[in-house]
Amino acid sequence: MEFLEMDSVIFSEDKGFQYFYRIIQSVMLDIVIVAGARPNFVKIAPLIHKLLREEKINYTLVHTGQHYDPLMNDVFFEDLSIPAPSYHLGISGGSQNKQTSEIITGFEEFLKDSNAKAVIVVGDVTSTMACSIVTKKLHRDLIHIEAGLRSHDRAMPEEINRILTDSITDYFFTTSREAGANLVKEGIADDRIFFVGNIMIDSLVRTLPFIQRPEVYRTYSLEENNYYLLTLHRADNVDNADVLTDILRAVSESIGDRTCIFPVHPRTEKMLRGTSIFHEIKNIEFIEPLRYLEFLFMQKHAKAVITDSGGIQEETTFMNVPCVTYRTTTERPETITTGSNELAQDLPALKAFLNTLEAGEWKTSSIPPLWDGNTAGRIVQKLHAIYSI
Fold first, then answer.
1. How far apart are CA 329 and CA 149, in angstroms?
2. What is the pTM (predicted TM-score) of this model?
3. 3-state percent breakdown (helix, strand, coil) of the chain, nearest 5
4. pLDDT at 125 over 70
5. CATH number of the domain to which 82 belongs
6. In terms of domain of life, where is this protein from (predicted)?
7. Does residue 203 lie within any of the structural domains?
8. CA angle 317, 320, 325 (to 5 degrees)
9. Per-residue CA distances from 113 to 90, 117, 166, 255 (Å)
10. Is 106 in the same domain as 149?
């Protein structure tokens, strides 16, 4: 039998392939990326596009199923050109605590049989927190994209998810200097914090050329910069019918004859069914959730957006569309200090901001640092550096 020699290691030809395979594997990084809800899909898309061209990083996409409405998940894989997930945990419905327990159980079954060295989680949804716990209990590296955001309101489920996730994260990728400062205050070492920018903006930059005018634009005879777009989904705003209808009345009273388009989250629709608001308000049009590319079109051409969503604060800032966020706090202060967003903490403030918009006045805004569409590339570069690949 002929023998080959390399670096003083002697092996037979029939074992040569196995040797080289082990060498190749030693310089490869296997990671898992977790997605479970609409914001996750938007944030993972640019990273996956980069990783598809990577030779040294293998990824596996796990979809927890946290959002189970087809308009809230499957359609995003199509609109954002993301390959179908390799694994689907099939979690859907129920309370957040029920979802948490089911995601933990399902993700543990998957991860314990995986060779992945690291798990990447994004944002602040239930899936992010639950999969983070499993990751560390199984002794894998945890990487959090969009780490360090803080609203300083622990009544928000998302704030609890952020705090718990960051408390056990190994490597932190942040959207802003403020987020990094939050982590430092919590005792995180500087060398584990990487200011890479906002990966959601990567998706926005990539998809803006392909946004699609939805049918509702024609149905309601909408004109550019002459309608409002409304989204509400946070528990504080939609879980009490009186609170929800008071918000809708405040919007209706403040926008005059203009039309407000309200794509209704399934959770919100359920709450509205027992009210008379559909018949009472004439200038708010209640529609089904839009596809991502359609929703971006509606944002881009709106006079303003009224929302309680974190991601929409970012998207409107990049597109320089006025935004009024109806919440008591925001974890994205740069959208206010630098961007086009304002925080309405109560109904009088909401009405005041809408009156300002109706008067044709709004502040001058700009785009925060590193919101440039290149965040995914910076993340991949950092992965190379962290894992020496």
1. 12
2. 0.88
3. 45, 15, 35
4. yes
5. 3.40.50.2000
6. Bacteria
7. no
8. 50
9. 18, 12, 25, 55
10. yes
- d(C-alpha 129, C-alpha 160), whole Å: 9
* pLDDT, tens only, 204-246: 999 999 999 999 999 999 999 999 999 998 888 998 999 999 9
Which residue is listed with tokens 């919007």? 251
Q: How many residues does the chain have?
A: 389
> How would DSSP label each residue in 86-150?
SEE----SS-HHHHHHHHHHHHHHHHTT---SEEEEETTSHHHHHHHHHHHHTT-EEEEETTT--
Q: Give the Cα separation of 171 and 142 in Å (integer).
A: 7
Give me the domain span that covers residue 57. 3-197+371-387
Higher pLDDT, residue 319 or 80? 319
- Do residues 58 and 183 both lie within one domain? yes
Task: Provide the number of structural domains found in the chain.
Answer: 2
233 among known catalytic residues: yes
Q: 49, 139, 144, 233: which is the annotated catalytic residue?
A: 233
On the CB side of 208, CA atoms within 13 Å amount to 13
Rg of the Cα trace of the chain? 23
Q: Kindly state whether residues 122 and 235 are assigned to the same domain.
A: no
User: From CA 180, how far away is CA 150, in angstroms rounded?
Assistant: 10
Instruction: Report d(CA 73, CA 76) in Å as an integer.
Output: 5
Residue 365 located in a structural domain: no
340-363 pLDDT per residue, tens:
999 999 999 999 999 999 999 999
If asked whether residues 98 and 11 sit together in one domain, one would say yes
Does one domain contain both 383 and 309? no
Coil, helix or strand at residue 224:
coil
Q: How far is CA 195 from the centre of its chain?
A: 17
User: Is residue 364 in some structural domain?
Assistant: no
Q: What are the backbone angles phi and psi of residue 80, rounded to the nearest 5°?
A: -100, 5
Residue whose tokens read 């995601």: 103
Tell me: do 23 and 172 sit in the same domain: yes
